[in-house]
Structure formats: structure tokens, C-alpha cells
Amino acid sequence: MSTTLNSAFKELRKFGYFARQNFMCCQNCGWHAIPEGKADKAVFFHQQDNDSKKEGKSFCLAWSGDGHQICDILNRNGVETKWDGSESVRIEVVSW
């Protein structure tokens, strides 16, 4: 896994996010596996997203909380993101 991505997820956890990489098989299972009381601040990508990542393609993050804060944390750790600011849109990781 990428050092910059690891650093970003570590910092997300410091800010109170449930943050996991390659978490569960799909988005639906991922949301259902988040511990009770943690779903309001969560960031993860699942195994299907990880397949794209392993191929060097962009991949998306499922998230809840403050999307701007999540992108800021990722970006300052060297992870380039693409997001339109909408709460209903996943954050795309373009480079890591």
C-alpha cells in the first residue's frame, strides 16, 4: 500500500474518522460492517475499488462526515482527489 495513502488514513483516524483501506467486498457490505456509532464519520474503499487501485487506475472512497475536511487531509498527505462537493458523490482518488 502507498505510504502517502497510509499516512492520510492514519490522519483521518486522528480526526475521528473510521478510516479503512481495502475494507470489505463492496460498498454495501462496507457500510454494514462499520461499528455502531462510527458511520457518521467514515472513509473507506472496498476490495472492488482496490482492484482498480492495483491496476494503477483511479478509485473512489465511500465517505460520511465533512467531505472538504477529508479531501484536505488526503491532499496534504500527497493524495490527489477529485470531488464535486456533493454529499451524494464519492471522492475519487486520482493519484497516491
Cα separation of the termini: 10 Å
Query: Strand-and-helix sequence, N→C?
Result: HEHEHEHEE
Task: Give the radius of gyration.
Answer: 12 Å
Number of strands: 5
Report strand order across the widest sheet.
1-2-3-5-4
Low-confidence stretches: none
* Rounded average pLDDT: 96
Overall number of structural domains: 1
Structural class estimated from helices and strands: alpha+beta
Shape: globular
Largest sheet: 5 strands, mixed
Helix content: 25-40%
Note the total helix count.
4
Describe this structure in words.
Strands 1-2-3-5-4 form a five-stranded mixed sheet. Helix 2 (27-33) links the parallel strand 1 (18-20) and strand 2. Helix 1 (3-14) crosses helix 4. The protein is globular. The protein has helices at 3-14, 27-33, 47-54, 67-76; strands at 18-20, 42-44, 59-64, 80-82, 91-95. 39% of the residues lie in helices and 21% in strands. The protein is α+β, with helices and mostly antiparallel strands. It has one domain.
List the helices and strands and how they pair.
Blueprint: H1 3-14, E1 18-20, H2 27-33, E2 42-44, H3 47-54, E3 59-64, H4 67-76, E4 80-82, E5 91-95
Parallel strand pairs: 1-2
Antiparallel strand pairs: 2-3, 3-5, 4-5
Helix pairs in contact: 1-4
